[in-house]
Amino acid sequence: MERDIIWIASYPRSGNTLMRAIVASMKLGRPVESAEEIRDTCPDLHADPIPAPNGQVRYVKTHLIASYLHPCWERTRGAIVVVRDPLETLASNVDYLSNVYRADGNTFLNFVKYMGVPEWDRMGMGTWPVNVGSWVAEASRIPIAFVRYCSLKLSATSAACAARRAISMLDDSTNGSTIAVATRTLTRDYMRRLADADADMAVFGRPGAQCGSTRFVSNYDRQKQRLGWHGHASQHPNYARLKSLGELFYM
User: Once rounded to an integer, what is the mean pLDDT over residues 197-220?
Assistant: First the structure.
């Protein structure tokens, strides 16, 4: 079987669509201009048909845990895994669930207790530690480039460099000059527009649920402010475990 798929993998709400937009821009040699261009260049395993092998390397979004049970796993060439601090991921999931699924006030506590979203686990995405850990475990068997979400939001240069390193490591079919052109055109304003758009529902102004009034959390202090709404969540033992996991991955 032809190994033609590079997975763009992450736990839900960790910056997958932002990573796909950057990768698509580098593959096209210019910034993508629509959500359709993102899907055409980097389809979504959960929503789009995956084309049959044709000799070209493909980038495909996935939120599933890494496993031989993963669809099209036999076609795996490598993976770009976006890792976001679990407490920031908590805030983003609460924003998403509150707007899309009308989550109740226990969403914070339930996430901390479960170390993830139970609905995502039932869909094969695991908890945050299981999802990220599954890709870490595969790193000894397949080429994997890990990208920290914070590097995608730090600056346009940081985001482009992170994506460029990942693509260069996994995909020798991508033209170096094409990547260089895209790197120069990923301006700060363009990156901010991508980062501020809701990752799944309103990229490029498409209709859908917007993020909540508090945008993506950027540090622990802001996270604690949010958890002040349901302060008992920060007292749960798993809160400290999630914080420790975040510090481990961001060392």
Answer: 35
Indicate the pairing of strand 144-148 with strand 76-83: parallel
Please, which residues bridge with residue 59 across strands? 6
Beta bridge partners of 61: 8, 44
Q: What's the domain range around 88?
A: 5-249
Tokens of 211: 């993020």
CA angle 238, 243, 246 (to 5 degrees): 125
Domain total for the chain? 1
Please name which of 149, 234, 158, 203 lies closest in space to residue 33, comparing C-alpha atoms: 203
Q: Rounded to two decimals, what is the model's pTM? A: 0.80
Mean pLDDT, the chain, rounded, equals 77
Could you give the C-alpha distances from 43 to 7, 58, 142, 154, 192, in angstroms and in order? 10, 9, 21, 26, 22
Q: Identify any residues that bridge with 76 across adjacent strands, giving them in sequence order.
A: 5
Element (H, E) at 7: strand 5-9
- What is the DSSP secondary structure assignment for residue 213, as one 8-state letter? S
Identity at 98, one-letter amino acid code: S
Tell me the HSE value of 189 on the side-chain side, using a 13 A CA sphere.
0
Q: According to the model, what pLDDT value does residue 250 have?
A: 61
